Amino acid sequence: MDFQRVDVVYALLFDENTNKILMVFNKNGTWSLPGGAVEVGETLQEATVREVKEETGYDIKVGNIAALNEAFIDKNQVYFITYHGQITKRPEEIPQEENIIKVEWLSLEDADRLMPYHSGGISKLLTEPGAKYTLQKG
């Protein structure tokens, strides 16, 4: 069977003042971190910044890779790359995005429960430094 490779990026955005994680409730009925598919010619980090802005209105900068998950979904081999992110600008209002029902800051307990495919939960990702990301030029 031929599989198509798909790269999906997410940003792990944590507010230390409230101990909450920024998450989105998708039209398919699931919660996730903000993010989405990487477009052709776009770097992983560019895609992360763009997707977070489109879905939440937040401007961010991207840090280390917090997690890398892989799944076979239908005829796709999907790589889910989650980055540590830092908010650089908060939006005046949250944009309406066609695939997102709502954007909310959720407690770590809720985030861990809603995202069981991260071993040890989202909380564990916050305490680990992650892996460096390098875009090679040339």
TrEMBL record:
<protein>
    <submittedName>
        <fullName>NUDIX hydrolase</fullName>
    </submittedName>
</protein>
<dbReference type="Pfam" id="PF00293">
    <property type="entry name" value="NUDIX"/>
</dbReference>
<dbReference type="InterPro" id="IPR000086">
    <property type="entry name" value="NUDIX_hydrolase_dom"/>
</dbReference>
<dbReference type="InterPro" id="IPR020476">
    <property type="entry name" value="Nudix_hydrolase"/>
</dbReference>
<comment type="similarity">
    <text>Belongs to the Nudix hydrolase family.</text>
</comment>
<feature type="domain" description="Nudix hydrolase">
    <location>
        <begin position="4"/>
        <end position="128"/>
    </location>
</feature>
<keyword id="KW-0378">Hydrolase</keyword>
<dbReference type="InterPro" id="IPR015797">
    <property type="entry name" value="NUDIX_hydrolase-like_dom_sf"/>
</dbReference>
<dbReference type="GO" id="GO:0016787">
    <property type="term" value="F:hydrolase activity"/>
</dbReference>
